[in-house]
Amino acid sequence: MSNSFGTMYEELWNFDGKTNVKITDETYFLDVYIAKKGNAGLPDGLYVIMETDTVPN
User: In the chain, which residues have pLDDT < 50?
Assistant: First the structure.
């Protein structure tokens, strides 16, 4: 599997016709695994989705 990781920043705004109001301002740590193609053209592993509220050490 190929691995990539980093930080994602999310801002969600609402415009009510007069003013902008920030609804969400979040930061997420991402750790992404991408399957490599195997000999038969199929992915090379099992997939497990994990979620946490804290950044791993």
Answer: none
Q: How far apart are CA 49 and CA 57, in angstroms?
A: 18
0.85 exceeded by the pTM? no
Q: What is the DSSP letter of 53?
A: S
| Residues linked to residue 29 through DSSP beta bridges, in sequence order | 7
DSSP state of 54: S
Strands (DSSP E) contained in 1-57 are: 2-15, 20-34
d(CA 55, CA 57): 7
Instruction: Give the tokens for residue 13.
Output: 């705004």
